[in-house]
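Quick one before lunch.
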Amino acid sequence: MHIYKTVRGLQNRLDQLKKEGKTIGFVPTMGALHQGHMSLVNSANEKADITVVSIFVNPTQFNEKSDLDKYPRTLEKDAALLKSNHCDIIFAPSETQIYPKDGLPKVGLDITHLIQSMEGPNRPGHFEGVVQVVHRLLSIVGPDYLFMGQKDFQQFTIIGHMLKKLKLKTKLIVCEIIREKDGLAMSSRNVRLTPAIRKKCSLLYETLTWCKANLNKYSIKTLEKKALEKLSQKPFKTEYYKIVDGYDLMPISDISNHKYIVACTAVWAGKVRLIDNMILKNVSSNKK
Ligand code: PAF
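Model of the pantoate complex:
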């Protein structure tokens, strides 16, 4: 495994590998890696000849400077974990490698319709930052496959939209959510939960599971209302609990008109913001 810190160094190596006919699987991350990320790495190892993982805490996607400052930076530990999971290449660039001083061309992509709800209004500018950095990383790495987690449902939907609209050759592969034993979705933020709050965090998974089990019993409005009631326990504060169409992320009123339905939530657990989701219905053939 090799760590590259510059675009030129990485691209020289990737050009060589591509000339040898190797396929490239790419996992973009912001570090603080856990088993959820490793499942992306394992999928990349299975699907592609070479697995590239980027570690870059992208400043343009944070709306709060304090969140950016608090974001854990654990390169050495991350590198050791990636090595033991057979990652081939780490790309850990500085900010100026990603955002050169003379600027980058704007990504001409309209995502307005995909950021109307859920994370969009709660995190202004966040997805524009994600699109900007993923577009830049893809232009540097030029991978055959891009691996992203289902946990960030809105994120992977927006990136899928970008790949399609900009006709990029990379294929998106979405990997399922990896959970702790009690159901809490793995996240780099979980380490910031206090032990007392952590013990109660299975509530999100339990609520989503309840919702799935009762999809045919209640209306969407009632399901959302009951889910919000379940989540309104101290120390939790729910930002949203939405049941939406999994393709366009629009609110739905009737399950029979939709093939692909997902429940998404964001909850403050003390000072830590957790997001989670669950696919409630999927009778489509081409999307998980
Ligand atoms: O999901 C993340 O960790 C980030 O949003 C990503 C995709 C690496 C872009 O910075």
